[in-house]
Each structure stands twice: as structure tokens, then as C-alpha cells.
Design goal:
4 strands, 4% strand, two-stranded antiparallel ribbon, mainly alpha
Length: 179
């Protein structure tokens, strides 16, 4: 198992899911874009029926992750730090949303499955579909905590790179000259 803390112990630092960190960041980017597309499709599906705040929050989370992932194309210590913070904060917000969603389903279970109906979209019963959705939510939450650890390691490794330190010093000098 390639967990960031354990990988350092085993001498495998600079890895993501047993891949080099560059490929791992591409995997994170692909996952971010795919979940952004899912959030947009979910928004389109739900916005016609009712106003649901979780849809807007999910769309916001997905947009922030994709935006800051592509912002790391301009490689600097600050973009790496901002990406790690965005990954951490959006993952914590996603965890809070998941807790709220599960607690509201447990409190009002009859609202979600009034007659134990069959859902043709998932080709299963309502409780089965809800269980599948919650299992996937928990999976993605843990996956994004792992991705957050990888983004943090990417920032820490970047903050020790001499070329990025020089670039940060040049940017700081430009800010002082403008002021």
C-alpha cells in the first residue's frame, strides 16, 4: 500500500498511488475533471426540479479543484501551497456535506424511499441505490484525503527546490518594486 507517510519509511518518497508524483498529479487532475463533469451534469439534472444547496456546494468544490489544479501549470511555491490548501479545505467541506447528507437520510429515511420503489436508472431498489451512492461518496472522500496528502507532499518537495526558491525571490522583489 502506498500511503504518503508509509512510503517515506519504505524509501518510496515522491510517489502517488505507486506512480511517480507527476503521473499521480495527472491522475488527480483527471479525477478532478471527471468529478467536475459529474457535478455539472448533476446540476443540470436537479436545477430543473428544485433548489438544492448541496448541488451548488458540490459544483463549487469541483470548480475550485479543477481551477487550482490547472493553476499549478505555472509552477511556483505559492501555487503548490494554494493547491494543497484548496484540496484540504474542499475535502473537509465534502466530508461535512457527507456527514450532513447521511444524518439527514437517517433522520428522514421515509423521505428518500417512501415506498421502497424500484429505480430504473440504477436498476435496483431505492435503498440499494442509496447504499451504493453512500459507499461511493465515502470512497471518494478517502481518495481525496489521500490526494490531499499527495498535494501537500508536492508542495513540501517544491518548497525545497532551488529553482522555485529563486522564482519566489524574484516575484517578491517585483512586488516590492511595484509598491
Amino acid at each position: 500500500m502506498c500511503v504518503p507517510c508509509r512510503s517515506r519509511i519504505l524509501g518510496r518518497e515522491n510517489k502517488c498511488c505507486c506512480l511517480p508524483i507527476g503521473l499521480g498529479l495527472m491522475l488527480i487532475g483527471i479525477t478532478n475533471v471527471a468529478l467536475f463533469a459529474c457535478a455539472v451534469l448533476n446540476y443540470i439534472r436537479v436545477v430543473k426540479r428544485a433548489w438544492e444547496p448541496l448541488i451548488y456546494i458540490g459544483l463549487f468544490i469541483a470548480f475550485k479543484r479543477v481551477f487550482f489544479h490547472y493553476a499549478t501549470c505555472k509552477d511556483s511555491i505559492s501555487t503548490r501551497r494554494n493547491y494543497a490548501w484548496v484540496m484540504f479545505l474542499t475535502t473537509c467541506l465534502e466530508g461535512a456535506m457527507l456527514f450532513w447528507q447521511v444524518s439527514s437520510m437517517l433522520a428522514n429515511s421515509s423521505q428518500f424511499c417512501p415506498n421502497n420503489s424500484y429505480i430504473p436508472t440504477f436498476k435496483m431498489t431505492c435503498p440499494g441505490a442509496l447504499t451504493l451512492i453512500e459507499v461511493l461518496n465515502w470512497f471518494f472522500l478517502f481518495l481525496y484525503f489521500y490526494f490531499t496528502a499527495v498535494a501537500y507532499e508536492y508542495y513540501v518537495r517544491g518548497s525545497a527546490m532551488p529553482e522555485l526558491i529563486k522564482l519566489a525571490a524574484v516575484e517578491e522583489e517585483r512586488k516590492k518594486q511595484k509598491a
